[in-house]
Specification:
Elements: E1 7-10, E2 16-18, H1 24-37, H2 39-45, H3 48-59, H4 94-98, H5 104-107, E3 117-118, E4 123-129, H6 145-149, H7 154-160, E5 164-170, E6 177-179, E7 184-192, H8 201-207, E8 216-222, E9 233-239, E10 247-249, E11 267-268, E12 273-277, E13 282-288, E14 294-295, H9 297-303, H10 311-316, E15 323-325, E16 330-333
Parallel strand pairs: 1-15
Antiparallel strand pairs: 1-2, 3-16, 4-5, 4-15, 5-13, 6-12, 7-8, 7-11, 8-9, 9-13, 10-12, 14-16
Helix pairs in contact: 1-2, 1-8
Length: about 350
């Protein structure tokens, strides 16, 4: 079985990198043969109960700490143990490694401009728009708009119609905390039930709109307030994937201290931890109101690259290339801030 290679662009070097996808052949088998020929078994395997038990089996068995950095599926991004809050030698399971804390206040610097929008995660990002006249228009590729936010959430469906979005794909080697991308006030916080589909590019192409079918947590942040980032309403959508058993809400205003569950009316500060993905791979989507932000030029240019082998490009018939970046790094700014660049 020959699978197309999948490359991404490393932001800080501009290098084209080959991604080694965890369990790639197994995922391909699930989403090509099994989904078509054994749909009942496929639904069982992508259900929350199976995903939970797969997570326990893969991440909760004791493992020697010395082996953590040597596992095959971690070789895309070797552990930077000097960033960790805790000593890796104290880790007894892979779960402890995946749920590691980092000294983000030292190793993940943020832009000084209060209007800057920052990445919510260490992830591979791709940007697009719901607006048909937009140069980054992508329709019906990664999610169905109404399903993504919830078909009964008319206020938010109206607010974000024709807006722009950014998709952040966290690979298994990544730091798995999500951080707040903007400063503002939480206007809504809710969960939508769903499946646990993989976010392997092959699975995403096969399912076409998996991110609006998976279980997800949605947070609406109003940034047009005192101390806010001033980019309108922002929807932060945290999406479970295969072997992600839970999304743990844990907003901390200072480092990782006194974690709290987000609530309506809660003020949140850009760059602070918001939630933790239980181990595996997962996805975070940001949705912005039409005309309220502009994505960084390098992210947009990278997405349109023709000379890179991307499974998204091959599957959707247009250049769709991801950029690998760090949490709290600049991704967008208000259109009037033309002087702010990546």
């Amino acid at each position: 079985m020959r699978l197309l290679r999948h490359h991404y662009i490393e932001r800080h070097t501009g290098a084209i990198c080959l991604e080694r996808l965890a369990a790639d052949r197994g995922i391909h088998w699930m989403y090509s043969g099994l989904r078509e020929h054994a749909p009942t078994l496929f639904r069982v395997l992508t259900g929350s109960r199976t995903s939970h038990w797969l997570g326990l089996l893969n991440y909760d068995l004791p493992i020697a700490a010395a082996r953590i950095g040597a596992l095959d599926f971690l070789q895309d991004g070797q552990p930077q143990t000097d960033e960790y809050v805790d000593n890796v030698r104290d880790f007894k399971t892979l779960r402890q490694w995946f749920e590691r804390k980092i000294r983000y206040w030292e190793c993940r610097p943020m832009p000084a401009d209060p209007a800057a929008v920052v990445s919510p995660a260490d992830a591979r990002v791709m940007v697009g728009s719901f607006h048909t006249q937009h140069s980054l228009f992508i329709k019906g590729k990664f999610f169905d708009y109404e399903e993504l936010l919830g078909a009964d959430k008319m206020e938010w469906l109206r607010a974000f119609r024709d807006g722009d979005f950014a998709i952040f794909r966290l690979t298994p080697d990544k730091y798995h905390y999500n951080h707040i991308p903007v400063s503002g006030i939480i206007k809504d916080f809710y969960e939508i039930q769903g499946a646990c589909h993989s976010c392997n590019p092959n699975a995403v192409v096969a399912m076409v709109t998996p991110f609006s079918k998976n279980r997800r947590v949605i947070t609406i942040i109003d940034t047009d307030c005192a101390g806010g980032s001033g980019v309108g309403l922002v929807a932060m959508i945290e999406i479970v994937a295969l072997m992600i058993g839970d999304i743990v809400p844990c907003y901390s205003a200072y480092r990782y201290e006194n974690p709290a569950v987000p609530y309506c009316g809660m003020p949140v500060k850009k760059g602070q931890p918001k939630s933790l993905y239980r181990p595996g791979s997962s996805t975070t989507v940001l949705v912005f109101q039409k005309g309220r932000c502009r994505f960084c030029d390098d992210i947009c240019a990278n997405r349109r690259r023709h000379n890179i082998s991307s499974r998204f490009s091959a599957g959707f018939g247009q250049p769709l290339v991801e950029t690998d970046l760090k949490v709290r790094s600049l991704i967008a700014w208000p259109p009037e801030h033309e002087g702010l660049h990546s």
